[in-house]
Structures
1.
Amino acid sequence: MLVEKYRQKEPFVYHPEIVILPTSYDVDKYAATKFIEQVRSKPNSVLTLPTGSTPEGMYGLLVQTHKESGLDLSQLTTFNLDEYWQLPSDHSASYASYMQRNLFQHVNIPVTQRHIPNSEAPDPNIEAAHYEEMLTKQQVDLAILGIGPGTTCHIGFNGRGSAIDSRTRYMPLDEQTLHVNAQSFPNPNEIPRGSITQGIGNILEAKKIMLLAKGVDKAWGIQRTLEGPKGSEAPASFLRFHPRVTFVLDQAAAQLLYKKTSGN
Ligand code: PGA
């Protein structure tokens, strides 16, 4: 398992691929192209998928390609990175609703091949263990991620303090994330305080990883992730231990990077 390799002291020094594009729309196009290439080269791919504002453009382009060019997604299996707990799954801010709105209702991925943690599960630990079991039966071909707001550097809902070998689990949401996510909840009483998320260890087991970041609000986190020390203080920095990770950034998100070509 890859995680075992990371426990050794720096035997593998990888240089993430960093793609810096002029605009956020270029990031959408690049991400959609990579997604489509993956599906065309291996129609029964297993993908880890993100939510949030960052991948909305990518999903829009995928839907367009499905409608206009008949992109077939019928053999795909998908695992979402995370979901709020506890929230009705049909709440407009749930990630189940997000995925319906942005992708699933428009394309032909069979419902039995899509996986999202159940935001209504009575016990989040049992639900996390169930999700972990389904996920680890598969080999994820490509994990697509965003990065958290501000100084969180989270991937999935793996906030500060998350270990490199963490697994699918219940995670409380940190204050910065709660603050940003509050925009999606007109009624503040509905804001979930926790989540069920794939762990860093799960994410690192994907064959390939692609992290997307757009806008100046992500610039600090991207600089910390790629040029700061690797560790739990910036969970996304653990991606630098992966041999095949690509950071796809617009110029705004990349503006604080000193080294523009290598993130080691
Ligand atoms: P965002 O969220 O795309 O809405 O910025 C990303 C994340 O929190 O992982």
2.
Amino acid sequence: MVTEFNASLQSYNSFGILARAQELIRVSSIEALQALVRTQAFQQSPRMVLGGGSNMVLTGDVKALVLKVELMGKRLLHEDEKGYWVEAMAGENWHDFVTWTLEQGWPGLENLALIPGTVGASPVQNIGAYGVELQDRFDSLEAVDLLTGEVFNLNAAQCAFGYRDSIFKHGQMKQVLVPAVRDSALERRPADRPLEGQDKTLSSNPLPMDWGLGLANRALITRVRFFLPKRWRAVLDYQDLQKKCAEHNNWEPSAQDVFNWVCAIRRDKLPDPKVVGNVGSFFKNPTVSAEQCKDIIAIEPSVVHYPLLDGRFKLAAGWLIDACGWRGKSIGQAGVYDKQALVLINKGGADNPCTGGEVMTLARAIQTSVYERFGILLEPEPLVL
Ligand code: EPU
């Protein structure tokens, strides 16, 4: 693997922010990664794993070894009367993978079309859109332990998926800044076995003993496996999709129809990161208690809110930001997208891009307004580095 020093990260983060990595290594082989991880130099260096760069804000140069995941490949692992088990390597583009599964006649991922980023990054924030979350189609994943070089597998429960959340977003973040200290007492586990010929249970291998509260920056996801059931049913609960059904007078759409509709809806209200830098929704949709929701409705009767199973309510962060007048506003070259206030954009393009500082100044100003008006502290979705 070749090391690039002082490497530009501008084309590797979907905001298009100018920043450099002290060192950058392209990971295209698991064996080479394992060999690298087992060197003393690697263990003494701070590091960061980079997927598609579609969920991060760079606020300066990255004083760490950046591992750019470029592991490629996708295949059908197993098919039976229940469904298809499909695997993609972490470096594959998410949308291309979704497109490929539909071309093969394996429905199930269509609601997740056009989400920017890579397959390897998809479990980290448990991507979701139009009523489907990654965890609904997830079988298991494989990762390399960046302390030991061992390969391990996690099933859905072990990934601890939540709303835009997983085990990969918690704990160990310090290692971005502080060199990791090798723990000689770390219990070694047997390496993973290949999946070829393995039957349905694809996720039984051990995970690191000392993973504590999380695996952030501790694990590099190498491949993700999905289960796509043959008893497929279109997920059309979202209002935007209901509208499409009505518009096309088609209440029994195929997976390809849903895919086309989701692409059209997204293209209509979300900026294409290839054209206008952004990281999708900048904040999570907050949840509040029934009493808080009532108080907010008293201030703003039109607040967009959805009941949750546990009696709480989810509020549309985009609506809250919009209600505070932020849509279309900007600070420096960082702006609020005029068609969807939940999305912050780089208004300066590649030649005069916004800085991470401008993005965060704008984000904090938005947080303050929403807090002052509604008493809700919006939580950013992307990782801020
Ligand atoms: N709204 C406004 N003004 C705005 C933006 C939104 O009033 O400027 C209102 C909309 O009219 C709608 C409600 O807020 O009634 C919700 O908006 P939308 O349907 O666009 O969805 P969202 O809650 O803003 C979430 C996800 C998106 C996902 C869509 C569709 C989060 C943080 N975001 O957005 O995910 O595509 O639902 O499922 O959960 C992402 O995570 O990057 C992302 C794009």
